[in-house]
Each structure stands twice: as C-alpha cells, then as structure tokens.
Amino acid sequence: GESVGLHLPTLSVQEGDNSIINCAYSNSASDYFIWYKQESGKGPQFIIDIRSNMDKRQGQRVTVLLNKTVKHLSLQIAATQPGDSAVYFCAETYTGRRALTFGSGTRLQVQP
Amino acid sequence: DAGVIQSPRHEVTEMGQEVTLRCKPISGHNSLFWYRQTMMRGLELLIYFNNNVPIDDSGMPEDRFSAKMPNASFSTLKIQPSEPRDSAVYFCASSSTARTGADTQYFGPGTRLTVL
To answer: Is residue A112 a contact partner of residue A15, using CB atoms and an 8 Å limit?
Structure first.
C-alpha cells in the first residue's frame, strides 16, 4: 500500500492502553468535524463525526471531543488494539460547503 | 451495500499519455468528490459535483486535468497529457445531501497512478 506521509507525527502506544490523537483547526466558521482512519492501501474510512453544537460524542471504543474556544479536536480510542494501527485524519467543513478540509494526519502504531 | 467503486486500482503510464480514472458513487448519493493524496501534500480536494454539476474546481491543478459527471452513477477524472508529478493516489468520495448541513463522505479504495 501507499505511504500517506513519511513525516507524519507518530503516536506509539501499547496494546490495551488508551490513545489520544489531537487535531487543531483554523477556520472558526467550521461547524462539522469528522475523524477518518486510513489503513495502508485503502481509502479513508469514517470513524465518528461531531457537530459544533456538541462538545463530546461517543461511539464504540471511540470518543471525539471538540473545544471550539481553542479550535481543537481530539479522538480518544479506548483499549487500543493492533487493528487500530493506521493514519488518522481530522476533517472539517461548514454548513453549505460540501467539501472537507483535511488535516495532515497522525500515524498510530500499536505495540503488541 | 456496495461502497464507492473506483477503477483502475493501479495505473502505470508514460509521460505524455492520457489517463482516465473512473468512479461510481454510492447509489443515492448526490455529491461526488475527487481528491489526490501525496506524501508531500496530503489529501487535497480537486473538484466536487453536486447533482452532477461541478461546484468547486479550484483544486484542479491545471488545464491538463478535467472531470466530468455525465450522470448520477458515474464520474471520470482525466489527465492529458500526464506528467511524472501527477503520480499520486486519487480518491473518489460521495455523500448524500438529503439532510441539511454537511454530510459524511465515504471514500473509494483509490487509484494509484504512476507516471514514468
């Protein structure tokens, strides 16, 4: 599969630990945010989303936190598993604009 | 349910040749997006369509790139003539705008293009 970035920041965690991946966004008008997971050789896969009228949303083993004051987004993965190893992207957009603006990505490496 | 389908999955061509990438969006989705991913620039939006109409093509690199969406179930991205710097993975994504506001985009597996 292709590499999505040799110079990506990398987070290395032990299997079973919790992971926190951070993302800063710059557009204060953004009101919809998505986290994507991209495994080698595959397209980005939707994980979880959040709208700006919320500050927290939970899914299965994942939680997204949104801090609009400092324009910061985080993805928390509970009990990280080897299958969680991938590159994670945050993306943002605003109402009326269909296109997403992607962050540069963070590589998560899970050590067994 | 079938996801976004892209073809070919891999394309190797020589500089100067025409390249056509194809995409079939998820049935019922009315927005379609073309992205390019490289190590240096990450994921970049090239163009997107809403109800088969191009809405924003500001990300298209230059006149060598063109995209069409003749109907709701098919889109092409063409590069003519291709250059080595066009080598990248090209993704197609689709979303439904049936709801108000922004909608989740679902990505295809991508086409890895290599221009020699």
So the answer is: yes
Which residue on chain A is closest to B47 by alpha carbon? A99
Separation between Cα atoms, residue B38 and residue A63, nearest integer Å: 28
The residue assigned the tokens 């369509």 is: B49
Does the bond joining B61 to the residue before it have cis omega, within 30 degrees of 0? no
What's the per-residue H, E or C state across chain B?
Answer: CCCCEEECCEEEECCCCCEEEEEECCCCCCEEEEEEEECCCEEEEEEEEECCEEEECCCCCCCCEEEEEEECCEEEEEECCCCHHHCEEEEEEEECCCCCCCCCCEECCCEEEEEC
Residue of chain A whose alpha carbon sits nearest to that of B103: A98
Contact B39 A102 (CB under 8 A): no
A85: helix, strand or coil: coil
Per-residue pLDDT at A5: 43
Give pLDDT tens digits for A9-46. Answer: 999 999 999 999 999 998 999 999 999 999 998 999 99
pLDDT digits (tens, 9 = 90+) for B40-72: 888 999 999 999 999 989 889 889 999 999 999
- With CB atoms and an 8 Å threshold, state whether A94 touches B110: no
Q: Which H or E run contains A111? A: strand A106-111
The answer to whether A23 and A73 are in contact (CB under 8 A) is yes
pLDDT band with cut points at 50, 70 and 90 for residue A4 = very low
Length of chain B, in residues: 116
Residue from B12, B104, B111 to probe the interface with A (highest A Cβ count within 10 Å)? B104
